[in-house]
Each structure stands twice: as C-alpha cells, then as structure tokens.
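Q: My collaborator sent me two sequences in one message, no labels, and asked for predicted structures for both. Can we handle them in order? The first one she listed is below.
A: Yes, handling them in the order given. First sequence, followed by its structure tokens:
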Amino acid sequence: MQGMFKAFMNRAESGISTDEKRACELFTKDLGVAEDLEEFLVAANAITEFGSTSLSPLIERSISSRKNTRNIAEYRQRLHAYAASAKNLRRRILEFMSRKCFQFDRNEANTLFTRLVTSLAKKGYPVYTTNYDFALEEVAIANGIQINDNFSKKGQRSVWNSSIDFPLGNALTIVKLHGSVTWYVDGEGNIEKIGS
C-alpha cells in the first residue's frame, strides 16, 4: 500500500489538505509510522482510541503525581487534538482507498482472472486476501459463479454471518482479512455488503 500512500499524499489525486499533509508528516516523522496507508489506519485507530485505554489514566496519574494540573490539562488538550486529527485522517484515507479500489478496468479483470476464479471455484480452494478491492468477486459475478464470503441474504440485504461460515466447493470462497470497500457498518452495528 506504499503506492497508495504516495497517491494519497498527491493533492491532485486525493485532494489532501495542507493540515492533513502535516498530520501525515507528524505520523511518519514524529511517530515513526511507515509510509503505508494500512499502517496509517492502525496508527490512527490507536491514537483515536487511546483516551479510552488503560494507558491514558496511567499517564495522567504519572503527571498528577507531580502536582502539576497545568500539564494534565495540556496533555488532555493535546490528546484531544491528536485524536481529532487522527480520526479525520482515518476517514479521509478510507474514502480515498474506497474511491481508488472502485476504479478498476472490469474487462481487464475478466481477462486476467476468469481462468483463476473458475479453477478455484471448481476445486473448492479458498482465497485468503488482504485486498480491499472486489475484482475477484466482479469476475465471479460476470461468469455466473457463486461467491461464499460469509454474508447471508436477509431480504434485500447481505449481512455478515456472525457464526463465521465459509463453505467450500462449487463457489469462489473468499476470505477478506482486512475487509472490503463493499462492506460497511449499519446503524445497528451489523456489517453489510453493498452491491450484492
């Protein structure tokens, strides 16, 4: 995802603002985060959720033991600013990745992957992938191949099966280890797949 990082840092491709670029530089230079969008997401999650972890009170107690309430207030203020910046950066990265992953040549994907997808489906071999895109699913759909991806139909919706069931055989079984641009969390906390 380093190529995606460079694209994200390019204002013409991503529309990144000066403040967002500064936040990225803080991540790489001050925090030592690798120039990789997945690494940025992990770091952004850690910063965003830090205030609710057991480490935050530990650091506050360490500061308060010195009886300097100004440091605690400054710490909380900086933590809040970092968390807000990280949350915004995370949102922008996910938007950018989704946009990029939806942009692929479907005809080229069919040319490249039809034999592979057909063979995997016939033999019942599962595919474990860290890709966010849906090129393999697109090829399966275009060729009338069923997809086993742990989603179950509930009326018009496709909802994640919490019992984790990936049946093998006679379909493209695909396990997306990092999720997909076609998944989202609805208002009730259910993982739903769009475009199904």
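Q: And the one she listed second?
A: Here it is, processed independently of the first:
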Amino acid sequence: MDTARSAIVSRVAQLGLSLSELSLKVGKNHAYFQQFIKRGVPGRLPEEVRARVAEILEIDERILKEASPGTSEFLKVKAEYRGSARVTTWIPVYGHAVGGKDGEFILSGNEVSEVLAPPSLSHIPDAYAVYVVGDSMEPRYFAGETVFVNPRLPISRGAFVVAQISSSQETVPHAYVKRFVSQDSRRLRLEQYSPKKVLEFPISMVVSVHRIVMSGENR
C-alpha cells in the first residue's frame, strides 16, 4: 500500500470513521474510498478530492499527492507521516435490515461490509460493527450510524448493547441495538428511547448480548 493510501487508512481509524463515511463527506458514492484503497481506482486522487480529504482528516495534503517521490520535500513529509502512523485493522460489519417496529435487524453472521477498527478494537479478534436500523434509539443513535462492538467486555446496567434474539433454533436471530437494563435467570430487559419503553425477552430466546464501545456517523 502506498503512502497516500496508508495515510488515509491510518487517519480514518484514528478518527473512528469508516471509508464509506469519508466517501460521503467528500461528495462521492459510499464505495469510493473502498475502491481507492483496495482496488487502486482511481490511481491518484483528483485535486479537489485531495484537498477535501486533507481538511477532513487533518493531514498534510502533500502526502496524498505522491507526485514527486524522489524530491527531498516529499521524503520529509513521508518520513513525518510514517513516524506517527498507527497500526490499523479491518473489522466486519454484520446485519441486514428487516424494518421492524423496534429497530430489529437480522444478524446471521453474514458480512455486509467492513470498516476500519477504532484503535481500542484493533487487537480484538472478534470485534465487529453493525449499522443502526430505524429511529428507536434516537437521539443516542440514528439510522445508518455505525456502532462498534467488543464481545469480550462485561455488560453492566446502562450499557448500550447489541442483543441477538431467536424465537427458535430454526429462526435466524434478530438483533437489537438497545440499552441494557437487567438480565436474570428468566428474562433479559432492554430499554429503547423512541418510543420510550422496555423490551423483555425470555432468557431461552437470548443468543448473545455484546457491548457497544463507540459509534460513528454514516449519514
């Protein structure tokens, strides 16, 4: 990966963004930077895109040019970037919207996309992300927002979670982005904001409850 692409990947991860979010922020389709990073298309960023990316990511625009790799100025900027670069990791985005009234979505383990992990998740092998469905958790989370999940963290009252619920062994689990209220030997209780109410599920239906650690805009 060349320096321009490495700089974008590293800085996006530091800011907790996704490549899709960056693409939309510069006025391109959501896959623009996925293609730029992974497929090399376009080969180089157009000047107007370069300037906007440098502004959003707060990096030196010169490192995005890669125009004159033999010059002393370029080598200096490249060395400065490499000295501050951080290790980045891709994590999967799971889920498929079903449009339920409580914002549920299908969480079958099928990857629908991938995003750059925030630094706190870069070394968690089973970390993942999901896209929020519906408006049931506004104003905390909005439809289309990316939430990042660490399955290894303990759950405590008031934590925001992704809960997988299945009504039978043959049913694909549905998942909910909610606030954890309580769990005992009989039931799991989750809170939603809009409309405000508490959802209860028999413990026999609960597949998993994983903690959300952060989110990022994807609107």
